[in-house]
Amino acid sequence: MNDDTGVAQLLKDSxxxxxxxNHEPARLRGWxxxxxPLERKLWQGMAELGWTSVMLPEQLGGSGLGLREACVLxxxxxxxxxxxxxxxCCVMPSVLLEAAYAKGAVNGVTQLAGWLQTAERPLALAxxxxxxxxxxxxxxxxxxxxxxxxSKQFVLGCEADSVLLxxxxxxxxLAVVAVAADAPGVCIDAFAAGIGTxxxxxxxxxxxxxxxxxxxxxxxxIALRQARAAGRVALGAELAGQAAGCLRQTIDxxxxxxxFERPLGAFQTVQHRCVDLxxxxxxxxxxxxxxxxxxxxxxxxxxxLAAISAAKARCATAALITGKQAVxxxxxxxFAEEVDIGLxxxxxxxxxxxxxxVEAHRRAxxxxxxxxxxxxxxxxxxxxxxxxxxxxxxDWSDDEFRLRLRRWLxxxxxxxxxxxxxxxxxxxxxxxxxxxxxxxxDHGWRAPAWPREHGxxxxxxxxxxxxxxxxxxxxVGRIIDNGETQLGPTLIKWGSEAQRAYYLPxxxxxxxxxxxxxxxPGAGSDLASLRxxxxxxxxxxxxxxxxxxxxxxxxxxxxxTLVRTGKFEKKQQGISFLLIDLKAPGVSIRPIANIAGxxxxxxxxxxxxxxxxxxxxxxxxQGWSVAKALLGHERIWLGSSAMAGSALDLAERLVAQxxxxxxxxxxxxxxxxxxDLHDYRLLYAQLCDRIALEGIEPGAEASVLKVYVSxxxxxxxxxxxxxxxxxxxxxxxxxxxxxxxxLHWPLMMSRxxxxxxxxxxxxxxxxxxxxxxxxxxxxG
Length: 780
What we know:
The chain is an alpha+beta fold.
């Protein structure tokens, strides 16, 4: 969703300008436990701007826009904590009125649309008859002889002069009728809810407004389902906006509030909490935007409803977590009604419950998850895909690309190298890796992200995403190819013409296999503290020092390194980026066994190693800039969800094999992990797509990917051990029903992912400064 152009930007500007001048959250203070009526002057102003009728068709006097534009408004309303029930009284009724108009209910719909457009009378949808309902069946409210009897619960916007759009039963069919709230036989029990008001409405032979239903039968059922779906998408946008507004206020507060002679926001604990809230909000935005895209494509399709449930759960969680943490980070002031933070929490509590709780929507998503996964896996098996005559994958449709790649992988990937239950994180090494990469290159499937002119595929990000999915589906072993994923993009940007001409083809053919030489003993994630020296001697550098944690260095022929070539005031200066042949005299490698029993990490020693000066990448002393660009590409690569996906597949099989498929507690935990992975994949795709579309280098925001997916992987592997009981303590193979696996190895292999490529704590520090602009600790 692009909010920065055209109508969307105009609406956003309009919303910010109007609310800045007409609404302050402080106006909502003092209403705790009291029924707060609609603020009619504010509501009237919204109507004059066309907001209340933004989704109404032009034939009904509306703007003729859609849910996308309504969500632009709603997100801003959430950020600025508007209490007026826009989603309930504008978004959802608009869906019903458009459906009724299409069915021919012209007179009543025209009148209702006029009231909505002018804000003369609020419209309120009354459909719920009990707590916890998501998709209710036939209502108990009945229409007999043109009169309505029954009750509805948790109705938003039920003012004394409201018009209620009520779902009811008419001669065994579902109907939607209009009833005036001030009509005889209507009784409203209003109560405070969040920062607004709800009510239970009772009908005792209440007359209908237009004598006949607005919608009846299947049309009524479809329209009501679509109204609830639209309402949940918009509510997700509002909750995400609330979370963002709450975090922004919190960052402002901790940046200004001084304790112990330093801003609160300079304390690492505070910074890391704010970063975690930023990550939650990023996931929420990805989720509701995907739900919106799905709604616009097919509002009531199974995958759309699953996406909407995932988004409602995610956005509610983000708003709740942010509200709670904001109170904590405000200290005693957070507990005072004199600031707005408590209002954000109160509103989040309401929004999380309305239109379905977090738990209910996670369960709904989990019920649909197997079908979603199956659809994804089967999407490449379609037989109706039209093949183009072009041999260039850039000319193929995404469906054709997926089908061609899937068929090729099924035919060519070695069966004995497939990932399996015993080794879900299986990595290809040595000859297995090189032979596979060469085979990809032989058939034109190598380096999907590299430009075509440099030997890559040059495909769009959507195809790169499909590429990852299909590799995962085929069980391709995990590939660590630093040459392709890290050094190649770095040389394309920073290397000389001679370096690109020489090294890029050798990377693609695996004639040179690269490892990374960044970390050093005692330096850890603090790369700027490196001590490996490179002294210029004529046309060569003489390198002395050591590197550590160089993955698979024993399998590699070359290493790209950061070395110190000068001393300056800032330790980030005087660092250069060198390419070194591991066969050069003076290089030695020592493997390091890890806690999973693998010799994958290595220590590399340089004893007066002579390196040609032409192997300098970028300018002398400017290696820090080169390194930052490379780390951005690395964190995009490390952000892949493949390992987490494999671990979750194992989790689902474990639950089945251990007879836990009816254990509600286990299933709820599994549902949370499934939703977490689903939402993360959306965030990954959207962030990478933005980077590709804008043509920018991956920046600090890429650290979000590495932080979240690495910790998600750990949570999944921990879940797998916990549900396995005593089997989880076995080191080595276990047999669980039909499942033969090793539970210990994946958990141990998941531990370092939060450490390498910059420990997650360091990544949070980066995000706190570069993205959230939190203050630095004072010197001295």
